[in-house]
Write a structure and sequence with these properties.
about 80 residues; mainly alpha; globular; ACP-like_sf; Phosphopantetheine binding protein; PP-bd_ACP
Length: about 80
């Protein structure tokens, strides 16, 4: 999954468009709470297949979440 695809998928859970999202954006400032993260992860798994994406309290911005998606994809490659 590319960064652009990631932003496009996440944009529906935020107040910004994919083009406006920065990887340094804080998830909570975008209105992305734990429920939105869960729904987002489910959407990503529908697109790329079940990946067991691990999201912990240390995930606070887009880059952290994107890194978790990439780590899960690498483990299943």
């Amino acid at each position: 999954m590319t960064e652009a695809e990631f932003k496009e998928a996440l944009a529906e859970f935020t107040t910004k468009t994919a083009d406006e999202l920065l990887m340094s954006d804080d998830l909570s400032e975008l209105g992305v709470d734990s429920i939105a993260v869960y729904e987002f992860v489910m959407k990503i798994e529908d697109v790329v297949g079940r990946q067991d994406i691990e999201v912990t309290d240390t995930v606070s911005n887009l880059q952290d979440l994107y890194d978790r998606v990439l780590e899960a994809a690498e483990q299943h490659a």
